Amino acid sequence: MKLSSNTILLPVLLPSVLLLAGCSSNVNRAFYEGIKSQNEAYKTPTERANAPSTPSYDTYQKERERLQQTDHASEKNESTDFNLK
């Protein structure tokens, strides 16, 4: 039976990511960085050279907040009163 590198790495990386997340004061940051590291480990050298790097957690968080504010603003503009006759 041949094991792929994914089969071997998953049991090693998943507990380390969870341990890192449990020891961190900011669990979301640790989880994001752990997944980012795992994704980087799966890339080939060519992919690393050609693909843009994943943004830092701070950049990701700012963009996420900006998109949430945009969504909330658009929801207010789309509200409709269906009780009109």
Walkthrough of the structure:
This protein has one domain (11-74). It is an all-alpha fold and 85 residues long. The protein starts with a helix and ends in a 7-residue tail after the last helix. Helix 1 runs antiparallel to helix 2 (27-42). The chain has helices at 5-23, 27-42, 45-50, 57-78. The protein has 4 helices and no strands.
Element layout with pairings:
Blueprint: H1 5-23, H2 27-42, H3 45-50, H4 57-78
Helix pairs in contact: 1-2
Q: Main attributes?
A:
85 residues, 4 helices, single chain, 0% strand, mainly alpha
Which class best fits the helix and strand makeup? mainly alpha
Q: Tell me, what's the shape?
A: extended
Write down the overall mean pLDDT. 77
Number of DSSP E strands: 0
Q: How much is the radius of gyration in Å?
A: 20 Å
**Beta-strand residue percentage:** under 5%
Unreliable runs, pLDDT <50, ≥5 residues?
A: none
Task: Report how far the terminal alpha carbons are from each other.
Answer: 70 Å
Question: How many helix segments?
Answer: 4
Largest sheet: none
In percent, how helical is the residue content? over 70%
Number of domains: 1
Question: Order of helices and strands, N to C?
Answer: HHHH
